[in-house]
Amino acid sequence: MGKFHLADEELLRIWICRKCKARNRAGSSKCRKCGSKYMRAKRKEKRVKK
Question: What is the side-by-side order of every strand in the sheet holding 15-17?
Answer without folding.
Answer: 23-24, 15-17, 39-41
